[in-house]
Design goal:
alpha/beta, Rossmann fold, 2 domains
């Protein structure tokens, strides 16, 4: 098996202890995406977009890829670039965690830091300007608008959740960055069973610290977001996401990142409204080692 073949097939774990603590009747499961080779859910979309670029001839050996990222897709691009032999330039907010920057640079990729106050939108606008200024130099996957992104989750993540729950999943909930995971998984699960409900996790403020999760009311909406799939929205605060990340480590042995904490906090809120027999699935996007310098671990 090569590196590309190692993507996907991640376990779906039941969060039994924190569910009992929360007093919910529904069962709550989480897809452990940190088992992917670069350590996050973004390996799936990065693989699909890269293969699409190679098939079309837009990305060739010795060529170069450029895109915007808040970190995890960039790590996946950098890993695959090192493995497949193409250069990678990544535009990312300057306040991205230092751990993610170190990982990216260790793969030999280049980072262009953008204004932290402009967040992921600033990085997105910067890479578009750079690619337009040098036409033909870069393969630009454009993860926010590339249909290969949600298609990867439709074909893999959603299919895996359906199979791993033996068709028992009743609700899916996750945060949105590029929206590829939400759109692809929701679309697949609803195709399998039209009664499955899909919920979007949203930070409770435009000024939040849940890295990788967009507050859609105050940002550029990705082309990959299919709002018709949204059956409801669950809001979480940064503090709730931090607290749940800590609790997942202490109670479930799952050392995960901030967006994962936000997803699980929202999943439990949703589960509290559901009857016994409901099955809620969410996503553990990445591991906590990418956020070790963040102060919230000591709270």
């Amino acid at each position: 098996m090569d590196l590309l073949g190692a993507v996907g097939g991640t376990p779906l774990l039941e969060l039994a202890r924190i569910s009992r603590e929360a007093g919910v009747a529904a069962r709550v499961f989480a897809k452990a995406e940190f088992f992917n080779p670069s350590g996050s859910v973004k390996d799936r979309a990065a693989k699909a977009m890269i293969l699409d670029g190679m098939r079309s001839g837009a990305l060739v050996g010795g060529g170069a890829l450029a895109d915007a990222t808040s970190g995890n897709t960039g790590i996946a691009y950098a890993m695959f670039g090192a493995s497949l032999g193409f250069r990678v330039r990544l535009y990312m907010p300057a306040n991205t965690s230092p751990e993610r920057k170190r990982i990216i640079r260790s793969y030999g990729a280049e980072i262009v830091e953008t204004d932290p106050l402009e967040g992921s939108d600033g990085a997105y606008l910067a890479v578009r300007a750079a690619v337009a200024a040098e036409p033909g130099r870069f393969f630009y996957p454009d993860q926010y608008n590339n249909p290969a992104n949600p298609t990867a989750h439709y074909e893999t993540t959603g299919a895996e959740i359906w199979e791993q729950t033996e068709g028992g999943v009743t609700h899916f909930i996750t945060g949105m960055g590029t929206s590829g995971t939400f759109t692809g998984v929701s679309r697949r699960l609803k195709r399998e069973n039209g009664s499955v409900r899909a919920y979007a996790v949203q930070p409770d403020s435009p000024f939040h610290g849940i890295e990788g999760t967009k507050h859609m009311g105050s940002t550029i909406k990705p082309g990959n977001l299919d709002e018709s799939l949204i059956d409801g929205i669950v809001t979480v605060s940064t503090e709730e996401a931090y607290a749940m990340a800590r609790r997942l480590a202490a109670a479930e042995g799952l050392f995960v990142g901030i967006s994962s904490g936000g997803n699980v906090a929202a999943a439990l809120k949703l589960a509290k409204t559901l009857p016994e027999g409901a099955l809620v699935a969410t996503v553990l996007c990445d591991g906590g080692s990418r956020y070790l310098t963040d102060d919230f671990w000591e709270a």
